[in-house]
What does this fold into?
Amino acid sequence: MMALKSLVEGTASAPVLVLDAPISFWGGIDYLTGLIQDRSHPQNGKSIAGTCLVVSNIRGSGGTPGVLADTLRRGCGPAAIVIG
It folds into this structure.
């Protein structure tokens, strides 16, 4: 069992997608479709849409919030994110 700290109140029910490697959202996620498009990522081609996305770490730039916001506006973002 993991102890989690909630940053935003709410509930979510979604299939869990545990990423096997860190990801860069800027360039690693297609913000139009929610698909992982990083060819070097083990889960290239999987969709983050509607999932409880579990990541050990996030790589790269400060563009992550913008990419996540774009996926959510287009209806292809995750339902929840667990980082740690």
